[in-house]
Amino acid sequence: MATMIYGMLNTAKSALVTQQRALTVTANNIANVNTDGYSRQRLNMDQNKTAGGTGVIQRIYDRFLAKQMTDAASEGGRWEAQGEILEKAELMFDDATGYGLNGAMAQFWNSWQDVANNPSGYTERATLLANAENLTLVFNKLSRDLTQVLADSDISITGTVDDINTLTREIADLNLRIAEVETGNVQNANEFRDRRDMKLQTLSSLIDVGSFEDANGYLTVATTNGHTLVDQTRSWNLATEKNTNGFQDVFWESSSGSRDNITGDISTGKLKGWIEARDQIIPRYQTQLDDIAVAMANAVNSQHNDGRDLNGDAGLDFFTPFTGASDITVNGLIGDDTNLIAAAADTENVPGGNSNAIAMAEIQNRLLMSGGSATMDDYYNGLVSDAGRFVAQAKINGDHQSTVSLQLAIYREEVSGVSMDEEMVNMVQFQSAYTAAAKMVNTVDEMLQTLMAMV
Amino acid sequence: MRISTRIMADRIKSNLAKQSIQLMRTQLKLATGKRINKPSDDPTGMGKILDCRTTLQTIDQYRENLLDAKTRIEYTETVLGQVSDYINDAKKIASNPDTEDKTALAQEIRHIRQQVLDLSNAKYGANYLFSGHRSDTAPFDQSAPYAYGGDSGSHQVMVGEGITVKIEADGSEIFVDGGDNLFQVLDDLETALTDPFDPVAAQNAVEPLSRIGERLQLARSNFASDYKRMERTDEYWNNFSNAVESMRQNVEDADITQTAVDMQVQQTAYEVLLATAARVIQPTLVDFLG
């Protein structure tokens, strides 16, 4: 009889402890209602036969959803990074405001017509020179600005590789802690797991990785093409090295210290976005810009050679030797002496002849680009359109990915998010169970006293 | 479906962000009056705008060229009109030289010659109008035999893509007819009027003066038709430029009324969202537990 009464006391004690632990979990949930990446926890209560253990605290979590979220983060990171860099490049094409190459070229050609109107006029010639110099400056600046954008994305790439290394180290560290806590399957390392999920999420937004968790709770992380980044409690670093273009390539460092170039294998994440903009898209802008500069300079130079300057001599090269848009300049000799501008076609026509000036102005309408199907203006306007199109595309893709990510985050919240109302209900529930258990102790106490009084 | 406390807040935050981005874009449109403020707003539209701008700038230049050429012709016409008057005066004197005061007549002819010579030296800007391409050389010598120092070049004006108009600048085509040079004829007439007076020689001047006068009229009518042609071209460019400009406006400029209405609608939506957020976010069970 007495054993039964003591048994009740034990059961009541166990109930008190269990409800108290449940309340602690509730308190923890409430405290973390706004914590990023927190999964709500629940005390799995067991019907307990031995009146000792009171259940394991488990986090409510959907592993499949987490995989989808890392994928979305990867794609989102790629378009975000690419959009950011391309938008910078787009800004350099100052044509929306009317101060770009488009305007500078038009001014240059128009100046030749002004010279044609007054072939020997000093003012017209000086204006032409000023506009030519401005045109070369706009070419130089645009080319330099695009190179600067390339350098910026290069810095971002180096920084991102550092971030990746930090993240993989942290994941390896968390692997260790989780294993330590969970040895023997008594406890779950819920907080550490939440944190590891967050790290993996961040890592995925930087580079495309695959991951799986083994039976011991270790998370193995590898790049999609199979280079291991984290295995159990150790991590491998990525490194950067200058390539022949002067930009940083991304390498994977093996345990022996040898390096594999993985630049071309990266398929998504911010790194991909930056690498794609740096190695493909913006260089294409620069090539097209160079094409325009070269085509223009060649046409202008050869036409100028055909003309005669005010001294009756053949025109010099108008633009001095150069390699592309970055270093095109007006011939210094012409810059110092407006008389060297060749407006006339023949020596006999000097100074009133203007045929060559008119021929110069007509270069604007020549189909010099795209294998003879476009004028320089057409070609450049197409280039600006393209610069806009790439940004618009990156934005559309980025918007799409962020909608997907938001939707996934909402699904995640549906499963793992803390609901204040739910927690309040739980609290009331656990509290009344606690009160009832306490009453139980009281009752047992009274029963024992009654028993004592009988003696 | 479980609704967690964060979903509510996150949804509201993300919607607020979306709405304010839209509002900002609409505000930018209203502030600049432009639908396209950077190439990515409408890449194809941006290409069209740049095409239009190139065309507009080119047209502006053609019209400037036309204006310059027209001014040159107007000026030429003024000069030639005066020369024509002087030739008529000289013709009158030559056809009727038998008056008392031959000295005065001779003096007048000398005066006319000097005037006409000055007029033939007319400059447009720094360039002689009537010496062809040698625009830095006076067309005629100041003394007999008044040789023509220019060449046969004409002034070319670019009025369109691949289109040029030639304006006559060859003084030998205007002031000289066959072997007769206007200034030499006047010089001879002056000699005929001075001692010894030679009425026959004086009257002989009438015929070349008439021919030169006619040649001058021909040149003037050529200038007039050039001028007309340029006016028509200018009008054409003007119409074309208006058409291109309105095309550019259609693509680039924002429809202000539409944008203002959009703005109003978006603002209302934003306020509704705020009001809803204020109601939805607050209450939880906590508020109702005693």
Describe the structure.
The complex is a heterodimer of chains A (455) and B (290). Chain A has 455 residues and is of the alpha+beta class. Chain A contains 10 helices and 9 strands. In chain A, the strands form 3 sheets. Chain A has a 4-stranded antiparallel β-sheet with strand order 3-4-5-6, with helices on one face. In chain A, strands 7-8-9 form a 3-stranded antiparallel β-sheet, with helices on one face. A two-stranded antiparallel ribbon of chain A has the order 1-2. In chain A, helix 2 runs antiparallel to helix 4 and helix 4 runs antiparallel to helix 5. With 290 residues, chain B is mainly alpha-helical. Chain B has 2 domains: 197 residues, f41 fragment of flagellin, N-terminal domain, CATH 1.20.1330; 34 residues. The longest helix of chain B is centred in the first third of the chain and has 53 residues. The two termini of chain B are 28 Å apart. At the A-B interface, helix 2, helix 3, helix 8, helix 9 and helix 10 of A face helix 1, helix 2 and strand 3 of B.
